[in-house]
Amino acid sequence: MARESLADIDVAGIVRGMNARRLGIYIVVTLFIAFFLAPLEAGILTAIKTDASIANTMPFLPPGADGVTAENIGTAFSQLQGGIINSLVMAVPATLITIVFASMAAYGLTMIDWRGQVGILILFLIGVFVPYQAVIIPIDKFWYQVFPLAQMLEPVARLKLVEPGHLQLVPLTITHIAYGIPIVTVLFRGYYQSMPTSYIEAAKIDGKSLTSIYKDIVLPLSKPMFGVVFIYQFTQIYNEFLFSLTIIKYANATAATMTLVLSGIGASISGVDYGLRMAAAFLAALPTLVLYIAFSEQFAKGLQTGGA
Amino acid sequence: MANITIETLTKRFDDVVAVDDVNVDIEDGEFIVLVGPSGCGKTTTLRMIAGLETPSEGQIQFDGDLMNYRTPQNRDVAMVFQDYALYPHMTVRGNMKFGLEEEPDFTDEERKQRVEEVAELLDISELLDRRPEELSGGQQQRVALGRAIVRDPEVFLMDEPLSNLDAKLRAQMRTELQQLQEQLDVTTVYVTHDQTEAMTMSDRMVVMNDGVLQQVGEPLELYHEPTNMFVAQFIGEPSMNFLDGSYEDEAFVSEQLAYPFDDRITDGLSAVSDNDRLVLGIRPEDIELHDPDGEPQGETSHENHTAAMSVTVVEPMGNENVIHLTFPDSSSGTEDLIAIADGMRRIDADSDIHVHIPPEAVHVFDAETGDALYNRRLEHEGNVIQI
């Protein structure tokens, strides 16, 4: 009986059925990939097209042999390079300082017991949820009227080390540090909570001070988390527009960051230069892409161990 | 090296009393084991000695110096953690040297030398340049020990250091640790839930339950003269058998068994009156099993302290057999006694057997309080003492 019923099963049918299902999955996956990649592909193609080619071909179709040009990328680069440099000069120190401070804060809030800890932690948590819009006007008032740091630093500019216009990057950097510390602290806190408490206890019993425990144990073990948080925070700051606009204000200012410059590129009264805009957008995105590729392994490792 | 005095030590976490009024004096160079089931407060006690927890009440003194508010950094103790707490980013050498860096009396050269010496002692010299993740569990355990030994502290604290090892390695490390402690002669407080570890390693052991100290004493003292039913069942494997019954006419009487006490026992039960509830305790290894149609002392009778029982389960261990026994008319259906028989002896499940409970091996407990009323006699250096 059993054998007969086994023989009755249509094996070929199952194989066919599986194939149809698989095929369906592949089709859906392919459609999704196309959906997500189409804007990117259209962007890249538009960036290398001549004006005529842009007008005559669909955005996602390749240009003809005579419709290819590197001119857009060249122009975009010359217009954007100052902005990218400004952004890097601002974002790299802002990110590093944020991470160092936040990791120290998280260490103090997670691994050491002290009175009033919970209150401070709540302040950090509130800090995470303060919306950008709510702080724009206070920031403007603070950096221009209450504490005009850029103006105060002008004597430094007389030493000819920097142009006076660049000084506005300093308040912008500080703003980003202040705004970034709460969320990064929370990320580090999650990571430190998963670290065995016996590491800290063993070090205490071995006679180590709290500073030494941070420096010798916690900091070296935070490496994967530093990778994750660096990518996250750098991308945030580098791509940020609202604070740049509030503090630096003009796309043609000396200190204008990448996002400010980008907002003005290829737009004029005579119309929008799509090729130039697309080329500029790609150049602007390159640093973050490079960062992702360089740190991808650490990023994945940090996400696994950190639970961030 | 230091002696440790613990007085009325109490630790409360909010409403939970983790450690309740514990008093122990630990002598210089002594190997003391805190043992009890999980949640009994043994680890909390150890952590208070280490300074990782602050006592709610009571005192901890090293050589008469009050330690309560001294940070762990200033107590000169070394601790081996259950998870070893080896720093993954340092080599074995780095791990061992880490604690030594805070010892002011060493030059850098001496520190290096000291690490080499201890590595030699623990036979881990060839592992010094590896990282913890490259080591086996047993090797990690040695490194953790080495990190403690290197510092030459006043007190060693060990929190279940062997519990992550497999059974064979654990038995080996037990002996090794014990020899090491003897050699170094450093006061050691060792926490475990494993009574075998406690019995085999300790000079004296401290049995705790629910935060309360049950008994302090040498291992054999606790084995033969437990102060209460908790200690009696906790020490020894398999656990002591307990039979519920009452005291009637100078005998222990239960549903299935009438067990007359001889003079030695009744002398000890002067505070007990008729119909008081009692618990009769007998260790599995003290129960004698006789063939029903064998020798004369195997006859079942009350005077003979022998009863007819049937075998329900036989667990062969090789060197011995663990025999589960039940009274023939037992209503419960579960086993009433566990006995140990020689491994060479053949005993079948479902057979009938005569069980002799020797009066010189029984313990009597108060059923209400669990306190021991009478313990078996133990020969102490020629003197017979009785608790």
TrEMBL record, chain B:
One GO cellular component, as annotated: ATP-binding cassette (ABC) transporter complex, substrate-binding subunit-containing
BP GO annotations: carbohydrate transport
Principal localisation: membrane
Keyword line: ATP-binding, Cell membrane, Membrane, Nucleotide-binding, Translocase, Transport
Record localization: Cell membrane
UniProt xrefs under Pfam families: ABC_tran, TOBE_2
MF annotations from Gene Ontology: ABC-type transporter activity; ATP binding; ATP hydrolysis activity
Bilayer topology annotation: Peripheral membrane protein
Enzyme type, top EC level: translocase
Domain of life per record: Archaea
CDD domains registered for this protein in UniProt: ABC_MalK_N
Task of the protein: Part of the ABC transporter complex XacGHIJK involved in the uptake of xylose and arabinose. Responsible for energy coupling to the transport system.
Family designation: Belongs to the ABC transporter superfamily. Carbohydrate uptake transporter-1 (CUT1) (TC 3.A.1.1) family.
Protein name per UniProt: ABC-type D-xylose/L-arabinose transporter
Organism field: Halocatena pleomorpha
